[in-house]
């Protein structure tokens, strides 16, 4: 741990070394010790079988659902996510074409989506009935609540013969069959035999009860699968059996509680976990398996399983180290992570589209054949980010369809804090294979930390506000920019405004108050106002709801060389003395430097900023400018050696400035110009990493 953040931790936890281990929250079967942590609206018992020869997945599930509203419910809403990959008429692909593609496929080709016949995927419900009662399959109807696309089949409803009364429940029995798609958007299969099963089973939507989400009466929140959105579900209990060929190694959400060898050459693995809102799993014959345990005084013990391709063997120790660091920091900053087990998957190179994704107690990261040392930027940041989701999406279960920033953006801010604390830096040389690192690497030698990386995130932000439904952004880039980077930088600006310690208390209070529930953005804002003791509505209106541009600049800096006075001056005796120039050769400590600085507000957002003037002798002064006018002149006159101005820089929450290169001016070229190119170099580095993985 480094810098101020490390000092804060020492202050907050002075007796850390003396603390005993925290008592477990769950037993070794993944069952909660004590009362439920969540409302447990749903319960799933799933039995699934994978046939790798045909990429077929068949399953049956028993679903229990409780009506937590005050009104009878006769209609149930379900997600059937994999039908997004059924054909090019789905809302997923229709939007992807307009928005420029999905996270792993570019839509610029006129043939997009370019899929072979066996690369499409789908899910078909074969049977659905009330347990011991009515057949519901004849009532199944596909819905499209978000658009007019009648060909989309990612949401369906069924009608019960008798409504579920308030506080009552219903148990359903369902059978389905699916074809696993070629890996895309967080799920699927690769040619090397890797399978990632995400959003893979028929799944209930969320019945929201007033005042949740602004609802005035009970309503189902069950959005279609959009190309730029993730997910939303109720907490409950999952008990899942997975049957695969005996040669395949499996990892999954929750705790492995049973393994059974079958006479047909398969084995069945049973996993269980209480108080989660989703379940994912992976399988491959090629996995290398690493096991470890996270232990730290005062935090719950967590069993760790890392699954990675043997080609990425050298990434294993860093995957484990990054996971432990994430459990440590996040557990102390926000709330101890309660679950007993975490699975980390690093997909093979041909399955990278499934990397960088999160599910409860299960994340996918990145593996590299030749990771950088001592901390590979891609490995550490991906692990920190995906595990961080186990708070903002895992514990808090925010609605990623409607408010993606509340998970992705808050989590990106947390990733920044962890990488800064662990001194995770970007070294472009690490993106070259070893034979070239020693030769070409020095040409690209840099040492950027997370603070500097944020400066490369600035750019035009007037297209969309941060607060917007995921599928309503104009382009894929617009979605990512606002939901991830812009929110991260805006939260850092909030930290600058309220102070680092207050910001830490805001996040800790938010997690403790809203975990195992479904908070909205307004809930986060209310906590920020409460903890800070300020009305921050102006901040949230300006930067989360607004689309204005913040751009302050140092326009000019000029200084006269030491010069004498000209004109009439009081002589101190009641008379006037005319001076054309000072006597020649004045002493250096009497020489006068006269400097003029002009600063301006080029954007429409008005905020106070500090103008810091640094002199040649190393001293400085700061003057507050309210930023209301379009420009302001500052005049500085000092005597003595080293009295000239060396640099002028604008400070405050100008981390949100869209053009950081003009926030400072020196007698020499400002270093911020080079830093502003960082966003571009990061993408170049990622390209090098991908190419290196494919070639070596």
Q: How is the biggest beta sheet arranged?
A: 7 strands, mixed
Q: In the CATH classification, which architecture of the largest domain applies?
A: Sandwich
Overall residue-averaged pLDDT value: 87
Q: In percent, how helical is the residue content?
A: 10-25%
The fraction of residues assigned to DSSP E strands is 25-35%
Mass-distribution shape:
elongated
Note down, in words, how this protein is organized.
With 696 residues, this protein is α+β, with helices and mostly antiparallel strands. The protein has four domains: 1-29 and 275-394, Neutral Protease, domain 2, CATH 1.10.390; 41-234, Immunoglobulin-like (Sandwich), CATH 2.60.40; 402-547, Neutral Protease, domain 2 (Orthogonal Bundle); 552-657. The strands form nine sheets. A seven-stranded mixed beta sheet has the order 6-9-2-1-15-18-17, with no helix packed on it. Helix 3 links the parallel strand 21 and strand 22. Helix 4 (377-395) crosses helix 5, helix 5 (405-421) packs across helix 8 (476-498) and helix 8 (476-498) crosses helix 9. The longest helix has 23 residues, at 476-498. The two termini are 33 Å apart. The relative contact order is 0.10.
Summarize this entry quickly.
The protein has 696 residues and is of the alpha+beta class. 24% of the residues lie in helices and 28% in strands.
What's the SSE blueprint?
Blueprint: H1 3-12, E1 42-51, E2 56-66, E3 73-79, H2 91-99, E4 101-102, E5 105-106, E6 122-130, E7 141-142, E8 155-164, E9 169-179, E10 188-189, E11 195-197, E12 203-204, E13 206-208, E14 219-221, E15 236-245, E16 249-252, E17 255-261, E18 266-276, E19 281-284, E20 288-294, E21 302-308, H3 316-333, E22 341-346, E23 357-359, E24 362-364, H4 377-395, H5 405-421, H6 434-440, H7 450-455, H8 476-498, H9 500-514, H10 521-532, H11 537-545, E25 552-560, E26 567-570, E27 576-579, E28 592-601, E29 609-615, E30 620-625, E31 631-639, E32 645-651, E33 664-666, H12 672-675, H13 678-695
Parallel strand pairs: 1-15, 21-22, 22-24
Antiparallel strand pairs: 1-2, 2-9, 3-8, 3-12, 4-5, 6-9, 7-8, 10-11, 11-19, 13-14, 15-18, 16-19, 17-18, 20-21, 23-24, 25-28, 26-27, 28-31, 29-30, 29-32, 32-33
Helix pairs in contact: 3-4, 4-5, 5-8, 8-9, 9-10
């Amino acid at each position: 741990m480094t810098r101020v953040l490390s000092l804060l931790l020492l202050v907050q936890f002075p007796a850390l070394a003396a603390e005993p281990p925290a008592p477990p929250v769950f037993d070794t079967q993944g069952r909660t010790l004590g009362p439920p942590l969540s409302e447990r609206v749903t319960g799933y018992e799933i039995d699934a079988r994978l046939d790798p020869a045909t990429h077929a997945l068949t399953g049956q599930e028993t679903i229990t659902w409780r009506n937590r509203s005050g009104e009878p419910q006769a209609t149930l809403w379900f997600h059937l996510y994999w039908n997004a990959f059924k054909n090019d008429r789905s809302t997923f692909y229709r939007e992807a074409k307009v928005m420029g593609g999905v996270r792993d496929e570019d839509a610029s080709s006129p043939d997009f989506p370019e899929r072979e016949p066996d690369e499409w995927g789908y899910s078909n419900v074969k049977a659905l009935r009330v347990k011991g009662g009515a057949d519901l399959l004849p009532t199944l109807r596909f819905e499209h609540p978000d658009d007019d696309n009648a060909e989309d089949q990612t949401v369906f409803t069924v009608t019960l013969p008798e409504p579920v009364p308030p506080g009552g429940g219903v148990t359903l029995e369902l059978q389905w069959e699916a074809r696993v798609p070629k890996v895309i958007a967080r799920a699927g299969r690769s040619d090397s035999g890797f399978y990632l099963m995400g959003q893979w089973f028929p799944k209930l939507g969320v019945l929201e009860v007033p005042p949740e989400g602004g609802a005035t009466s009970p309503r189902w929140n069950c959005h279609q699968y959009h190309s730029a959105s993730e997910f939303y579900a109720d907490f409950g209990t999952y008990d899942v059996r997975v049957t695969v060929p005996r040669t395949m190694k499996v990892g999954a959400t929750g705790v492995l509680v049973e393994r059974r060898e079958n006479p047909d050459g398969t084995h069945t693995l049973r996993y269980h976990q209480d108080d989660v809102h989703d379940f994912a799993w992976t399988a491959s014959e090629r996995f290398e398996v690493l096991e470890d345990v996270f232990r730290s005084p005062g935090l719950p013990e967590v069993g760790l399983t890392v699954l990675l391709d043997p080609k990425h063997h050298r990434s294993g120790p860093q995957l484990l180290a990054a996971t432990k660091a994430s459990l440590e920091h996040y557990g102390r900053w926000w709330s101890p992570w309660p679950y007993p087990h975490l699975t980390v998957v690093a997909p093979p190179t041909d399955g990278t589209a499934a990397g960088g994704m999160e599910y409860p107690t299960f994340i996918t990261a990145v593996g590299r054949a030749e990771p950088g040392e001592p901390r590979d930027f891609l490995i550490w940041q991906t692990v920190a980010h995906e595990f961080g989701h186990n708070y903002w999406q895992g514990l808090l279960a925010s609605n990623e369809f409607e408010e993606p920033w509340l998970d992705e953006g808050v989590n990106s801010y947390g990733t920044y804090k962890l990488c800064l604390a662990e001194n995770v830096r970007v070294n472009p040389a690490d993106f070259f294979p070893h034979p070239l690192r020693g030769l070409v690497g020095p040409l690209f030698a840099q040492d950027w930390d997370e603070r500097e990386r944020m400066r490369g995130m600035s750019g035009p932000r007037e297209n969309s506000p941060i607060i917007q439904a995921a599928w309503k952004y104009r382009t894929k880039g617009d979605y990512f920019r606002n939901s991830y980077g812009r929110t991260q930088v805006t939260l850092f600006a909030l930290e600058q405004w309220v102070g680092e310690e207050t910001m830490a208390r805001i996040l800790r209070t938010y997690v403790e108050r809203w975990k195992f529930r479904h908070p909205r953005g307004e809930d986060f804002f209310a906590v920020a106002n409460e903890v800070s003791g300020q009305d921050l509505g102006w901040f949230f209106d300006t930067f989360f709801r607004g689309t204005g541009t913040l751009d302050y600049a140092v326009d000019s800096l000029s200084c006269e060389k030491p010069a004498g006075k000209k004109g009439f001056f009081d002589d101190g005796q009641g008379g006037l003395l005319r001076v054309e120039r000072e006597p020649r050769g004045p002493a250096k400590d009497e020489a006068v430097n006269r400097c003029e600085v002009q600063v301006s507000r080029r954007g429409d957002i008005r905020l106070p900023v500090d103008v810091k003037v640094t002199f040649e002798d190393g001293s400085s002064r700061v003057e507050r400018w309210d930023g209301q006018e379009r420009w302001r002149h500052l005049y500085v006159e000092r005597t003595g050696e080293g009295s000239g101005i060396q640099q002028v820089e604008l400070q405050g929450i100008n981390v949100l400035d869209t053009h950081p290169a003009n926030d400072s001016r020196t007698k020499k070229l400002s270093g911020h110009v080079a830093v502003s190119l960082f966003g571009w170099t990061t993408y170049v580095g990622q390209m090098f990493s991908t190419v290196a993985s494919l070639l070596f």
